């Protein structure tokens, strides 16, 4: 399957060689999410499992903000009128976005500027790396609207990124995490200038896309799967995964390039 010519209706999609950039694009309202954009993001990340032409993904927001989360008028209002069946359909669908992000083999880098709140913060959390700016205000603000912090995997994933105590404070109070806190706590891999954050994320994505993409996908997969393993199980799983990677042509290319004192050119097979 090729996704480079994808034409989504609810976000922008741009491909530069094997790197795709998703841009949430409703800047007049700080790029909120709707029922439709949730579903289209879920389907796109699911399709990336089978994409032959996309090796890394950047997700960002338009015009100085990442995302303000679920749209108050398009999502929050209608949710107050749904019954339990309808609410469960919605919460499972939104959780499926994060499942799909974690399951696709391509590394995902979030380029975050400005407001990154609610479900927007969850999307950034679901990425494999996060590049931020000094302008970032990241808020898992569910407690401030009468909801639990356990949304779309936040209680499982956020403590693994920033630590249990810090995650408890952020999720229970709903307060915004500053950019400096986010970098110091490990939420952001780095802070960039607002005008360069997307470019720097794309540069990292291109670096990863030019690497051994089969092996990178294996690394991402094992990092996720090993959450549920004992240390002994993880060591055995990694032995099997590494043996598989040793059968790839990229492994042989790297060896021959090393012998020839050249840089390897990886092809993902």
Would you write up a description of this structure?
The strands form 2 sheets. The chain has a 6-stranded mixed beta sheet, with helices on both faces. A 3-stranded mixed beta sheet has the order 5-7-8. Helix 9 (213-225) packs antiparallel against helix 10. 47% of the residues lie in helices and 14% in strands. The longest helix has 20 residues, at 84-103. The chain has helices spanning 35-47, 72-79, 84-103, 119-126, 154-162, 164-173, 179-185, 197-209, 213-225, 231-245, 249-259; strands spanning 12-16, 19-24, 56-61, 108-111, 115-117, 129-133, 137-139, 176-178, 190-192. It folds into 2 domains: 12-209, 2-enoyl-CoA Hydratase, Chain A, domain 1; 213-259. Strand 1 (12-16) and strand 2 (19-24) form a beta hairpin. With 269 residues, it is an alpha/beta fold. It contains 11 helices and 9 strands.
């Amino acid at each position: 399957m090729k996704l480079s010519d994808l034409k989504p209706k609810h976000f922008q999609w741009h491909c530069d060689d094997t790197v795709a950039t998703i841009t949430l694009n409703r800047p007049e309202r700080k790029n909120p999410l709707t029922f439709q954009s949730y579903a289209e993001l879920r389907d796109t990340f699911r399709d990336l499992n089978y994409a032959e032409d996309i090796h890394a993904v950047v997700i960002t927001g338009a015009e100085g903000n990442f995302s303000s989360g679920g749209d108050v008028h398009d999502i929050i209002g209608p949710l107050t009128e749904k019954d339990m069946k309808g609410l469960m359909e919605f919460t499972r669908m939104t959780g499926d976005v994060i499942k799909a992000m974690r399951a696709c083999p391509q590394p995902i880098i979030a380029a975050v500027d400005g407001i990154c709140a609610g479900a927007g913060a969850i999307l950034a959390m679901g990425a494999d790396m996060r590049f931020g700016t000094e302008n970032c205000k990241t808020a898992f603000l569910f407690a401030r609207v009468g909801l639990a912090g356990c949304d779309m995997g936040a209680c499982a994933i956020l403590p693994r990124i920033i630590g249990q105590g810090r995650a408890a404070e952020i999720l229970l109070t709903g307060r915004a995490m500053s950019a400096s806190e986010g970098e110091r706590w490990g939420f952001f891999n780095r802070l960039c200038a607002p005008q360069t954050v997307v470019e720097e994320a794309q540069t990292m994505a291109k670096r990863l896309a030019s690497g051994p993409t089969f092996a990178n996908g294996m690394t991402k997969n094992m990092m996720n799967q090993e959450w549920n393993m004992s240390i002994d199980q993880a060591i055995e799983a990694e032995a099997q995964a590494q043996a598989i990677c040793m059968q790839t042509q990229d492994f042989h290319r790297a060896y021959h390039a090393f012998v020839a004192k050249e840089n390897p050119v990886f092809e993902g097979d």
